[in-house]
Amino acid sequence: MHRFVRRAAATAVALPLVLLLWPTAASAHEVRQVGKIKMTVGWQHEPTYAGAENAVQVFLHDAAGKPIDDLGNPTSLVVRVVYGSQPPSAPLDLEPSWDPDTGLGTHGEWDAALTPTEPGTYSFLFTGSVEGQPINQKFTSSDSTFDDVQSPSSIEYPTKTQSNAELGAGIVALQPRVAAVKSDASSAKSSASTAITLSVIALVVAVAGAGTAIVVARRRGG
Questions:
Q1: pLDDT digits (tens, 9 = 90+) for 96-127
Q2: Quick count: other Cβ atoms within 10 Å of Cβ 76?
Q3: What residues contact residue 201 under an 8 Å CB cut-off, 6+ apart?
Q4: CA–CA distance from 171 to each of 6, 109, 159 (Å)?
Q5: What span, in angstroms and rounded, lies between the C-alpha atoms of 63 and 34?
Q6: Which of 181, 59, 62, 72 is closest to 126 using CA atoms?
Q7: Within the chain, how many helices (H) and strands (E) appear?
Q8: Is the model's pLDDT at 210 over the cut of 90?
Q9: pLDDT in tens, 35-48
Q10: Alpha carbon distances (Å) from 66 to 108, 111, 131, 162
């Protein structure tokens, strides 16, 4: 009985700690103090898959730890997304999660809708200001920050789709074959055209020959 009580007490102590740590384990974000503003940045949905709707997510808190729900209208902070050697995306507007009219959402959470189309490493470049604090910060996905974008092939069933990069590589690989088929078709068309021309000439010659024979025969008969 005493052993059961001790176990129950240990569970009662451990459970709140597990619940407290669970959000951190479930969702990877990078936390950074920028002057008086704390920024917590990551993907809205993780794991993050190419081709799936997602969003750049940032939680904003002031020096006192109070969530920031107002960035002005228009918002004073925007985010651009960077992938590989591609030029940055157009500025994406951050929309508040918290809705004071319905009481739904999360205080201090701001999201910019985005569908990543390729697997790999992504960076989020935040520029503007928050409560007068200038912001010019770049956050990059990694094992120690937030998720890289993954190929969806591991969760696709029953068939697996190809990524845009794989489709592009396949199209490039097919181009020489397409050119060869066009060349063959052009040669075949040219050969067919030549054959038709020769047939017409042969027919004309035959008709002309027949006409000459008829004229000759009439003259002999006359």
A1: 999 999 999 999 999 999 999 999 999 999 99
A2: 17
A3: none
A4: 66, 42, 20
A5: 10
A6: 59
A7: 2, 11
A8: no
A9: 999 999 999 999 99
A10: 8, 18, 12, 45
